[in-house]
């Protein structure tokens, strides 16, 4: 069972998949709900400080490199575009907008993209991590509900 939890942890760390893939996987293989939720949250949040502190620097460094340049440029463009949209719509409620952005479990709106946007926008580290953490907690609850068919029952 430990290996299955490690896999849930690792899946939740993968960009674009994150908690949106880890929780349904855990539910699908029959792991206990609460433990799976906690492990997926921890896995999804583990890279956040590293992303905030180093991702932009690494992406800037690599955007001109031959093999990795296109991917790194794509990541920068996606992060900048998402960050600018967030900043334009949110104004003073930027941290609330970051929270909502991460909380809605659509592809490309998770902890990785939200944290990269916060880094690109030079948002406060502690406030950004708090907003992303709260967003991941809510996204995890939504994915748990979806995985158990709760929305199907409500909307049928």
Short description:
This protein has helices spanning 2-13, 18-28, 33-45, 48-62, 69-90, 94-103, 111-120, 125-147, 150-154.
Helix/strand class: mainly alpha
Number of helices: 9
Summed over residues and divided by their number, the pLDDT gives a mean of 89
SSE topology string: HHHHHHHHH
Radius of gyration: 16 Å
Number of DSSP E strands: 0
Overall domain count: 1
Characterize the largest beta sheet: strand count, sense, and whether it forms a barrel. Answer: none
Q: Note the overall shape.
A: globular
Q: Helix fraction?
A: over 70%
Separation, N- and C-terminal Cα atoms: 35 Å
Unreliable parts: none
Percentage of residues in DSSP E strands: under 5%
Describe the structure.
By secondary structure, this protein is mostly helical. It has one domain. The chain is built from 9 helices and no strands. Helix 1 packs across helix 3. The protein is globular and about 45 Å long. The termini are far apart. The model has no long low-confidence stretch (mean pLDDT 89).
């Amino acid at each position: 069972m430990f290996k299955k939890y490690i896999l849930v942890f690792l899946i939740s760390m993968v960009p674009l998949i994150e908690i949106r893939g880890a929780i349904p996987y855990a539910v699908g293989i029959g792991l206990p709900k609460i433990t799976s939720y906690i492990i997926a949250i921890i896995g999804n949040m583990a890279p956040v400080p590293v992303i905030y502190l180093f991702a932009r620097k690494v992406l800037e460094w690599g955007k001109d490199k031959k093999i990795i340049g296109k991917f790194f440029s794509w990541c920068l463009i996606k992060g900048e575009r998402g960050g600018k949209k967030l900043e334009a719509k949110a104004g003073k409620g930027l941290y609330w907008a970051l929270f909502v952005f991460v909380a809605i479990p659509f592809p490309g709106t998770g902890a990785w993209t939200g944290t990269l946007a916060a880094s690109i926008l030079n948002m406060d580290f502690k406030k950004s991590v708090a907003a992303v953490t709260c967003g991941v907690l809510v996204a995890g609850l939504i994915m748990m509900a979806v995985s158990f068919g709760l929305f199907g029952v409500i909307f049928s």
